[in-house]
């Protein structure tokens, strides 16, 4: 293809990409997908121009666009990383404290029913079968039987990385259901918080009754700091979203929902961050049989202090 034909055929692409570059350089925000697609095409055109030995002027023009595009991609990645760190370190804990009423309500709905059922099953062990079927009871017993060589779920793979992925999938699924249920005027979030709290309290109490606490509590104390806190935060986010439909104030229910959802989704993202940490700890630390219970209790206690300090002190003075 002659250079003149090449330029006439693709000139409109170059002009469109120049316009996108100018928007980015002025700190405007065009579609990321659109920009990436254009950038790949410009790189392709430059490769063609070099392969066909088109004029140095044309090659220089395309190289300039590729260089400017690469700089924008690098800047966007750097900015994304910076924004992500800022969100985790500052914005998320500050935002959670602004919504402390929802958080403490979710915490109470999760832990108090769990505590009640825990004490009830200590008083009458047969109550556990009103909450869990016999197969579930047997399964949980086998997970924490001190006579076995593994801790937690029976491994379907010999790699901790596989279990890391499994725990992320499982935990995020629970948190998302707890969050998404809030759209039903808070009912779904309330239900999942109560259900998970009661279920956790029931099997924990049963494990104590059968004498397996020496393996159970050292296993859960570490990742529990992150996992259980994340579930309550997801519940708080869902309750906030549903409450906006119950009490929209001066806004329409749709506008109130839109406004609360912006905050709720950010809380959910923060909960997801904690769940990733929980999955990592559960896969690589909690399940280890090389560590003594004393070490796990000490480290687990430190984890709870870290989470408490992070949520109460992180981002102090940060304006959300």
TrEMBL record:
Keywords: Membrane, Transmembrane, Transmembrane helix. It comes from the Bacteria. The chain crosses the membrane at residues 102-121, 159-176, 182-204, 216-243, 263-285, 297-315. InterPro entries: SpoIIM-like (IPR002798). Pfam families: SpoIIM (PF01944). This is Stage II sporulation protein M. It comes from Spartinivicinus marinus.
């Amino acid at each position: 293809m002659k250079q003149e034909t090449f330029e006439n055929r693709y000139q409109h692409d170059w002009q469109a990409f120049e316009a996108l570059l100018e928007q980015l350089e002025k700190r405007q925000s065009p579609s990321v997908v659109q920009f990436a697609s254009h950038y790949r095409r410009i790189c392709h055109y430059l490769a063609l121009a070099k392969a066909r030995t088109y004029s140095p002027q044309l090659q220089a023009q395309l190289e300039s666009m590729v260089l400017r595009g690469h700089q924008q991609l690098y800047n966007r990645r750097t900015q994304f990383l910076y924004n992500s760190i800022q969100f985790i370190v500052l914005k998320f804990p500050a935002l959670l404290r602004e919504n402390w009423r929802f958080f403490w309500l979710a915490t109470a709905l999760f832990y108090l029913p769990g505590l009640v059922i825990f004490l009830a099953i200590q008083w009458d062990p047969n109550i556990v079968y009103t909450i869990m079927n016999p197969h579930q009871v047997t399964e949980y017993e086998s997970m924490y039987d001190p006579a076995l060589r593994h801790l937690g779920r029976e491994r379907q793979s010999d790699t901790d990385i596989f279990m890391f992925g499994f725990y992320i999938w499982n935990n995020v699924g629970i948190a998302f259901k707890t969050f998404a249920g809030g759209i039903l005027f808070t009912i779904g979030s309330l239900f999942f918080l109560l259900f998970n709290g009661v279920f956790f309290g029931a099997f924990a109490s049963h494990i104590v009754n059968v004498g397996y606490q020496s393996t159970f509590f050292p296993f859960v104390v570490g990742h529990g700091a992150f996992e259980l806190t994340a579930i309550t935060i997801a519940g708080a986010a869902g309750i906030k979203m549903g409450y906006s439909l119950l009490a929209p104030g001066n806004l329409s229910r749709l506008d109130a929902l839109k406004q609360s959802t912006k905050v709720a989704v950010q809380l959910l993202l923060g909960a997801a961050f904690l769940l990733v940490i929980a999955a990592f700890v559960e896969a690589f630390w909690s399940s280890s049989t090389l560590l003594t219970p004393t070490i796990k209790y000490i480290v687990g206690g430190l984890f709870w202090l870290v989470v408490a300090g992070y949520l109460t002190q992180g981002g102090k003075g940060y304006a959300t």
